[in-house]
Amino acid sequence: MADDPEDLPHFNLFSEEFSRCPQAVYREMRAACPVTRAAITESLVLSRYEDVAWALRHPEIFSSAMDLQVALGTERPMIPQQIDPPAQTRYRKLLDPHFSRRKMEALIPSIRANANALIDTFIDAGECEFDEAFAIPLPCTAFLDLLGLPQEDLALFLELKDGIIRPQKAQPDLDFEGAQRVRVESGRRIYRYFERIIEERLREKTPREDLLSSILSAEIDGEKLISTEILDICFLLLLAGLDTVTATLGCNIAYLAANPDQRRRILEHPELLPGAVEELMRWETPVTAVPRLVKREVEVGGTVIAEGELVTLLIGAANTDESHFPEADRVDFERERNIHMAFGAGPHRCLGSHLARMELCAAMEEWHRRIPEYHIKSGETPRYSPGIREVLYLPLVWER
User: Fold this and answer.
1) How far from chain centre, in Å, is Cα 230?
2) What is the reported pLDDT for 6?
């Protein structure tokens, strides 16, 4: 007999405790039943690796086309994230070559140079707040260079991005309706910004050699993209490019600061770093979850999920599922076949995964070369945001 979705256990995925250390909640959810329910949002939640992977690979059932249900300040679906194949596939074929491994490898020297320039500004002080000093500016600088946007607008971009992803960061007392108003206004400002930039680019006689110029000149089936398509791509790139690597870098360094034995393994065996990056993405999984809209009735683990239900695919729980990962609760930098889903899976798998991996490896190599011994400042506690787990406050100290 199928479980009644109304009787499923509830879990709070937005609490401070969950944001700081979600793995215990993941275990509890997986043990409870294949399908649970999220407190506050009331969406159904899939937490087991097999179920999450299956859902991600079947967009005809678990759809990303939910711009009306998941309001992120947009006026139309973000492209290609909020549309499904076959339309989504056409845009991915256009964008994927710009994020190829070969093209991203060409960015590594500038990422290393920027990392060292940032470290130069605080290394002699013997301390820093890692998020503001390093985790935010490093990947954001690389992304703005890639897209071809002015570095002097970074503060504006961060304000707009936070207005969409975490509006309570600037205004902690915002209720749900207030947060939605901030998202709508931030979305309008993002559209206005890119409308102006696109108009300026189109007036230029010689195209620039950056991603935005490539998008402006791109064609699908012999037709150039229309203005709304370009805006909807830029909206997504802004959110994704300025947040997820920052969040991942902060979570990785917070873990290593709190686990000195693991950090020393990287120092003594630097060849382990790529594996460490993969394992920390599995264990920390900053993008904890993605939403999906059920397009037709489906049964998962004995629970019937109705058409029209919003479902949360809990990637972080899937990545720590002991049925898929041997000794899932052990952080193992030499883990074999580490097929995690920190970048998602299926047709909507992260467009910028090659860039993210290279940024993380280069940033962590340079950090540990310059500041090998560090720890969390005595008496201080890192502070995490819900949703995308950015370490909003990570005070680190080291010997000068």
Assistant:
1) 21
2) 66
Degrees, nearest 5: CA angle 375-377-379: 130
In order of 8, 126, 265, 329, the CA distances from 372 in angstroms are 47, 12, 11, 26
| Other beta carbons within 10 Å of 206 | 6
Beta strand 219-220 with 375-376: parallel, antiparallel or unpaired?
unpaired
Facing residues of 45 across strands? Answer: 36, 312
Question: What's the pTM?
Answer: 0.93
Report whether 360 contacts 110 (CB < 8 A).
no
The residue type at 257: A
Q: How far is CA 75 from CA 89, 179, 184, 348, in A?
A: 22, 16, 9, 21
Rounded mean pLDDT for each run of 10 residues along the chain, 400 residues in total? 64 86 94 85 91 97 82 89 95 95 93 97 98 95 92 93 87 86 94 95 90 94 94 93 93 98 96 97 96 95 92 96 96 96 96 95 98 97 91 95
Domains of the chain, start order: 5-397 (1.10.630.10)
C-beta of residue 277 within 8 angstroms of C-beta of residue 364 = yes
Please provide residue 242's backbone torsions phi and psi, each rounded to the nearest 5 degrees: -105, 5
